[in-house]
Every structure is written in C-alpha cells, then in structure tokens.
Amino acid sequence: MEHAPNFLASLVIGLAAAFAFGLAARALRLPPLVGYLVAGVAIGPHTPGMTIDGEFTRTMAEAGVGLLLFGVGLHFQPRDLLAVWRVAVPGAMGQVAIGTLLGAALGMTLPGLGFGPALVFGLALAIASTAVATRALEERGHLSGEAARIALGWLVLQDLLVVLGLVLVPAAAGGQESGLVEAVLLALVKLAAFAGIMLVVGRRVLPWALRQVARSGSRELFTLAVVVVALGVAFEAASLFGVSFALGAFFAGAILGESDLGHQAAAETLPLQRIFAAIFFVSVGMLLDPFRVLDAPVTSVLALAVVLVGTGGATFALLVALRVAPPTAAVVAAALAQVGEFSFVLMELAIGQGILPDALRGPILMGSFGAILLMPLTFRALTALAARLPGRTPPAEDGRSRLLAQLPRMEGHAILVGYGRVGVLVAAALRRHHLPLVVVEDDRHRSEVLGRQAVPVLWGNATQAEMLEAAHVARARLLIVTLPLAWEARRVVELARAANPGIEVAVRAHHDSEVEWLNAQDSTGLAVMGEREVALGIADFAMQRMGVATSTAQATVDVLRKRRVADAAVAGLGV
Predict the structure, then answer these.
(1) CA-closest candidate to residue 250, choices 140, 144, 159, 139
(2) DSSP code string of 210-255
(3) CA dihedral (109, 110, 111, 112) positive or negative
(4) Hey, how many other C-beta atoms are within 10 angstroms of the C-beta on 323?
(5) What global pTM score does this model have?
(6) Which of helix, strand or coil describes residue 338?
C-alpha cells in the first residue's frame, strides 16, 4: 500500500497525537484530556503543519460520545435519575436561564446583535458537555453516589433543552413564529415516543437479545453486539425521533444497566470508550482557531467568564440553595463548569441560518476550550469555597460503580473465579460449611444455573477490573482462581491485589513457573498444580501406609508442594 487512505492516516495521526500530548500532560500533572485538546489544536486546520481530516474525526468523535454516554447509562438506572429530579429539574432550568441571560447580556454589547440572536449566543454558553463532565467525574473518583446522580440528571435535562433549542432556531430564522408551538410539541411527542418505546419494548428486547448472544459462548460476538446496541439505538434515536445521538446512547445504557448483563457490557466497552473519548477531545481542539480568538480577545475572555460564572457558579449557588451539601455541590458545579458538543452543534446551526455572525465562533470555542483547561483549578476553587460553608458532609465516594449494588453487601467472603471441574468442587466445600462466597463465571449457562440455585454469581470475565469491583474484592478475604489459562490467572491476581493488598490467594497452576510467580508475589498464597496434587496425594497415602506419622507425612507434603518438580526429584535422591 503506497499511500494510506486519508481516513486511515487521520485515525493513526489523531491517536498518536492524543497519546503524545496526553503523556506530556500527565508529566505536567494535568489531566490527559488537556493534552488531547492541545493535540487537536496542533493537528487542526487552523495551525501550521500537519492537518488531518476534520469531518472524519468529528464522525469518530460522535461515535465516541455515544459509547461514553452508553457506558455512563449502564451505571445509572432510570430510578437513580428520578431520585434526584427535585434537585436536577429546577436547578438545571435555573442554571440554563442564568447562563443564557448572562451570555445574552454579553451578546447585546456586540455591534449588530439583537436580543433574539443574543439569546442563542447565551444558550450556546450555558449548556455543559456531558462527555467532559462524566470524564471529569470519573478521573476524580466521583462517578457514583449523589454527585454523579445529580450531575447526570442535570445534564439529561440540559440535553432535552438543547433538543428544543435545535427545533426553535431554524423556525425562528425562517420567521415561522406561528409554527414555533407546533414545532415544540412535535419535538416533545417524538421524545416521549422514544422514551416509551425504550421503557416498554427496549427493556425486554435488548437484554433478551444480548442473553442469546452471551449463551453462544463467544466474547467477540458479545462485544460486537453491545457496540451495535449502543450505536444502533443512538442512531435510530437521532434519525427517527430527533433525539440527540448521545442522549439515545445514554437511554440504551440505562435500560441495559437494569439487567444482569450490565456489568459485562460496561467492561467490554470500556476500552473503546477511552479510545473514542480521546478522539472526541482531539476533535474539540481542532475546532479552535487561535487567530480568531486573537481577533476578539476581550469577547473571548468574557465568554469564558460567562461559562465559569453562568454554569459553574450558578450551578453551585443553586445546589446550595436547594439544600445539597456544599462538598457535593462543589463537585457537580466544577464538573459542569464548561461547554461542549451540543453548544458546537447549536453554534454551527445558528451561524448557518444567519442568526449569529461567523465572528462569534471563536469566542464560543474559547469559552469551551478555556473552561476545560481550567477545570483542575475550578475543582480546587469550588472545593475550597465549599469547605468554608456550613453543611453536612456526605459519605465519601470511592468511584465504584452502581454494579456493587447487584450483590448484597459482603465482607470477609471468598471470590471464586471459574466454575468448571475444579471450581465446582471448591464451591461445594465452601457452601457445605455455609461460608460466604461470590462466583465470577464467564460461561453464561453456568452462571444462570448458579443463579437459579441462589448462589451469588456474576457473569463476566474477571480479567476486567470492573468485574472484581462488582464482587466486592476490596472487602474480600480470599481469592480462588481456577482458570485454565496462566495469563488470565495472573491478571486476576494482579487486579485483586491492586484493590486489596491483604487478600489471600489460591491459584490453579499448570507449570512450575506459575507456582514460582505466585510464591514471589506472596509466600502465604497457594498455587496448586493438578498433576502435582495427584502425586502428593498418593505420596501422602504411601508414607502413612509405610508407617510414617500423619503429621510428619503432612510436613513432607507441604515442603514438596513448594518445590519445583525437578528439585523434588533431586531431594528425593538425597543429593
């Protein structure tokens, strides 16, 4: 292949730039997404040097936002969002109104901009990016608990307001004031129809379909099916119901998250979410034209101030007024103190319809770009402000997902990974003595059988950290790994030890090297080789029948169990 296709070159260059600048950002103790944004500026069309295909990158970015919101939806059931509606609905509407009016006041100072266009300009500065907010919460360990529920409820309502805004802008531009009410009602009817279909039909069809794929035993097909569900539902939502692509994906995730498939679906899509999220932030950086910002530096700085005050500041003040604990309010407000993808869509639509002049593209993008860059400082400032205010302190959030709630709260239990010929006997022994046990099994049929037997079981692959988190590994006493593949066993042990350094481990092994590896990790752990245990069982029987005391025979077995097969043979010869 002499010349790579343009889209292939764009993908490779975009990912390479994201990696390089993200690594540099981490070296400077900044979030990687700051590096991704700078990478987008570096390879964008507005700066000298290498340029990649912006249209392709934006398409990939939209898919990335869909996967990211699908993953977020998997962690939040509809009832989680309904639980915070008393805060999210009035708060989000009040914040959007404040931010829009502040932006409109700025717009009215600009020459030639009337009140209507100024309101559109203000709305573009008042809508936070769901992708940026969820990524910021995840990086700081807050993607669970009250702060995340409030933020997601807030963002969902903002997205609904943007959907209405996207309906109103073309109608207003065409002078169709008489048709505004009909347009709004039509948008609401479509949204309600989509939500109804997802709640009534999707809640039954999507989990059922994925269960059939899971029973096939192919992880590749299951991963592909999850991606098809996420992007397919999002695409249909956008094309048939006028719902945003991201919001459609979020609904699909929230519906699927109610089933026992949610944890594995989240684990399978997590790597894709991270890769495509990086592409999203690169695409945002590509939109920024530094020279346009320099053309209107005062307006750009004021637009940034409107975002920080009208979104971040207003959110914090409203949450505190609604009796949310100041520390929680600070986390939510800092995560929302930015604007993103929907603001860009609204901006481009308004510019295309002639409502906003092209010169305002730079200030809006500067408001987004600058707010994301300043997010670490925003978190610090609002956290410091919250510490000075009276109010209850919420329980600490450790970032674990809602999946932990799928099992009853357990402590001091054993986690059995693998329910095959070895695991079934281990489980039988533990259950016989009524010892607390959680089974992690990647065979769908076996997990369903265990579920019918009232055995706590999670279906999925334990080499993914989220599966062990769902099994409450941080509070477990013992990890038993009976997987047939050595690399999988090592991965499970490493993940478990990272989450719980004090956990005891027993591993099924096949070679001396695996035994040595575990012994090097933990001298108190147990690595069991099938053939060796057969030999040791026979040796124990033989020694006792030949007159060796039971305790002495057991001591010999313990010594030989820790030795290599070759060393044991040499020891037996007395060398």
Answers:
(1) 159
(2) HHHHHHTT-HHHHHHHHHHHHHHHHHHHHHHH---HHHHHHHHHHH
(3) negative
(4) 11
(5) 0.60
(6) coil
Which residue intervals of 296-340 are DSSP H helices? Answer: 297-307, 314-321, 326-336
- Give dist(CA 294, CA 16) in Å, integer: 28
Instruction: Assign 3-state DSSP to the chain and report helix, strand, coil percentages, each to 5.
Output: 70, 5, 25
User: What span, in angstroms and rounded, lies between the C-alpha atoms of 445 and 439?
Assistant: 13
| Interval 230-262: pLDDT, tens | 888 888 888 888 777 777 888 888 788 777 777
Given a cut of 60, whether residue 142 has pLDDT beyond it is yes
Q: Residue 563, Cβ neighbours under 10 Å: how many? A: 15
Residue 523 CB burial class (10 angstroms; 0-12, 13-18, ≥19): exposed
What is the mean predicted confidence (pLDDT) over 488-507?
85
**Under a CB-based contact definition with an 8 Å cutoff, are residues 507 and 527 in contact?**
yes
Q: Is residue 46 within 8 Å of 291, Cβ to Cβ?
A: yes
136-161: string of b/e by CB count within 10 Å (b at 16+)? bbbbbebbbbbbbbbbbbbbbbbbbb
Sign, CA dihedral 252-372-53-360, equals: positive
- The contacts found for 377-384 with CB under 8 angstroms, 24 or more apart, are 378/308, 378/312, 378/334, 378/337, 379/136, 379/140, 379/330, 379/331, 379/334, 382/312, 382/316, 382/330, 382/331, 382/333, 382/334, 382/337, 383/327, 383/330, 383/331, 383/334
CB count within 10 Å of CB 190 equals 17
Q: How far apart are CA 514 and CA 495, in angstroms?
A: 17
Closest CA to 532 of 513, 555, 511, 554: 511
Q: Give the type of residue at 278.
A: A
- According to DSSP, residue 44 is labeled S
pLDDT reported for residue 138: 75
Looking at residue 484, its amino acid is P
Q: H helices within 28-144, ranges in order?
A: 32-43, 54-74, 78-82, 85-108, 115-124, 130-139
Lowest mean pLDDT among 35-39, 65-69, 180-184: 180-184
